[in-house]
Amino acid sequence: MKKLSIAIDGPAGAGKSSVSKILAARLGYAYLDTGAMYRAVTYEALERKLTDDDAIADMAAKLDMEVIPKEDTMHVIVDGKDVTPFIRTPEVSSHVSAVSAIAGVRSAMTAIQRKLGEKGGIVLDGRDIGTTVLPHADVKIFLTASVHTRAIRRFKELTEGHPDMTMEDVEKEISRRDYLDSHREISPLKQADDAVLLDNGDLTLEGTAEAIIAICRKKFPDFA
Ligand code: CDP
Ligand code: CDP
Questions:
Q1: Which of 17, 72, 142, 199 is buried deepest, with most CB atoms within 10 A?
Q2: How many structural domains are present in the chain?
Q3: Which domain, by its residues, includes 149?
Q4: What ligand is nearest to the CA atom of residue 211?
């Protein structure tokens, strides 16, 4: 059985990265968190105090970015520095949708992602994997859950480092990002025509991974 490319798209808090890690570990596949790449570009733009779209696109095109998948998380190295610990702050989260809407940023990141994804034996998570990065991915999943469920999940994670944030703040921020990501001009967050919709509001992470394996088996009977 050939090693598949599995695309998992969907909104924030759907469980994409957690489930992708479970799948990659179980299948012995690589895992690419494409959101971490957009977050790293956003972090660099904030560090360099760049606000102009052209300047940010220029920076993204020249960025020396290396992605290193590890079991616990995917590390992103920019110009030799591991920026992973700094890319999930509320500040980066609030700017990432604007940065990732810039055409030059998307083309630079998509080129790296496609190169890694085309080899197969990989799980990629993002917003546009099934529609743009790998339109011929072997299996495409659109993973989602209600905004409220996703906000509860994120709230649990965030309040450890940011006790001042309320559940209402988190739900508003997630809704804002859902809106921006699905209404941008280039490669918006959208279910690919041939993706399988999976609402995991009532599923655990393990249950979600099992459901995705079942979807893979349905399409490729000798899979795993
Ligand atoms: O982890 P979370 O779902 O909060 O977000 P993420 O996957 O880290 O993605 C952060 C942001 O990057 C998203 O809100 C999108 O604006 C952008 N993104 C994108 O435009 N295309 C992708 N393939 C992945 C992420
Ligand atoms: O990558 P994405 O933003 O789609 O979601 P995630 O970061 O993998 O998941 C967000 C949080 O929801 C994590 O703390 C997961 O453990 C949790 N989660 C859950 O408890 N049950 C699910 N079925 C999916 C996610």
A1: 142
A2: 1
A3: 5-217
A4: 2
